[in-house]
Specification:
The protein is built from five helices and six strands, in the order H-H-E-H-E-E-H-E-E-H-E. The protein is of the alpha+beta class and about 210 residues long. The chain has a three-stranded mixed sheet with strand order 4-1-6. A three-stranded antiparallel sheet has the order 2-3-5. It is an enzyme of class 7 (translocase). It comes from Gemmatimonas aurantiaca.
Amino acid sequence: MSTPDSGQPAPRVKPVRYARKEYWNEPTMTLWERAYLPEVLRGLAITTGVFLRNMGKWITGRRGAVTTYYPEERRADFAPRNRGKHVLTQRPDGSVQCIACNMCATVCPAKVIEIEPGFDMNDPAHPKYPVRFEIDYSRCVFCGMCVEACPEDAIRMEPDVPNLVSDDRYNMWITMDEMMTWRPQSDVAKPYPPKPVALTRGSRPEGGAPSKH
């Protein structure tokens, strides 16, 4: 390669050599540490210690750390805020508090809630209600997001764990009747107005003149 003016070959440019970055605080491992034997032995020591402690509790009759043999044995020391079985709250008249807004089914990460809405035009206070409200416990993760998303406080979770022992997934669906009758709860903190009476021909509203039609 030559320059256009002098015809002499251009000087060859030497490539720039970059020095590798040196870490001044890089730890040096010995041959014993590179074999990872200390960490393996340390993990085995922790596992053996837990095993011996649990075995001691088993021998002395303290079975707090031993696995419960479910479903023959069931725990009763669940935390007060444990998220367990779902219940549907009721209004003072016994009807379901749910308005079938589908917010719980929308926010559910496992998509296990199925709601079939119905309409009652004779009840202007809450014309929408669930005809079918079911939860698939075979896929439910018991996260409690349905309870947080409900605007009517219509669904709650009890600390008790539901009975999920079944060899058929179709038997693990919980229905609306079971959620309302298992442990009935009424939302007395938020009463609803009474159902208005439908006007008929010639009837007079309270404090008004008779209708003219």
